[in-house]
Amino acid sequence: MKTDEEFIRLAIEMANQAKQKGNLPFGCILVNKDNGVILKAGNTINSDRDCIAHAEINLIREASKKYSYLYLNACSIYTSDEPCPMCTSAIYWSGIGRLVYGLSKKEYYKIVGRENPNWVFEIPARELLQKGGRKLEVIGPLLEEEASMVHKSQT
């Protein structure tokens, strides 16, 4: 049985693939209750010319076409980075029951900075999810140093 750490590493690999394709370095995977990876996605903002083509949004769009809300409730989403408020909300509305993330927003902003106010939207995923009626399990940050490398390295 794979561990949360192994799944986070797969999400980080998706982030690396997104970066290699000229997109922002974010990735995620969806794992079913039997520990099987059922979907993978990366950020495609640049290649799709779509400002909301975040990895999580791309994955959830596909997942909601293939699986029921109840099925997704037993699934876990693993993200290379703590999801932004838009993606956190999409995770909530999708029915996905568990979120595990690598790099925290706090550490992410230490790497990339806060100079451009258009790109800063700091609401922790846990805080936002506490506002909803449905409870999701949230694990993270996990393997933060490994998850940070995709933001630090040049490709």
Summed up:
The protein is of the alpha/beta class and 155 residues long.
Structure description:
By secondary structure, this protein is α/β, with parallel strands linked by helices. 45% of the residues lie in helices and 17% in strands. It has helices at 4-20, 45-48, 55-66, 69-73, 85-94, 105-112, 125-129, 144-152, and strands spanning 27-31, 37-42, 76-81, 98-103, 137-139. Strands 2-1-3-4-5 form a five-stranded mixed beta sheet, sandwiched between helices. Helix 3 packs parallel to helix 5 (85-94) and helix 6 runs parallel beside helix 8. The mean pLDDT is 95.
Fraction in helix: 40-55%
Beta content: 15-25%
Which descriptor suits the 3D outline?
A: globular
Number of helices: 8
Estimated radius of gyration: 14 Å
Largest sheet, order of strands side by side? 2-1-3-4-5
Cα-to-Cα separation, first versus last residue: 32 Å
Number of strands: 5
* Mean pLDDT level: 95
Element pattern in H and E: HEEHHHEHEHHEH
Question: What key attributes describe this structure?
Answer:
alpha/beta; five-stranded mixed β-sheet; single chain; 155 residues
SSE layout and pairings?
Elements: H1 4-20, E1 27-31, E2 37-42, H2 45-48, H3 55-66, H4 69-73, E3 76-81, H5 85-94, E4 98-103, H6 105-112, H7 125-129, E5 137-139, H8 144-152
Parallel strand pairs: 3-4, 4-5
Antiparallel strand pairs: 1-2, 1-3
Helix pairs in contact: 3-5, 6-8
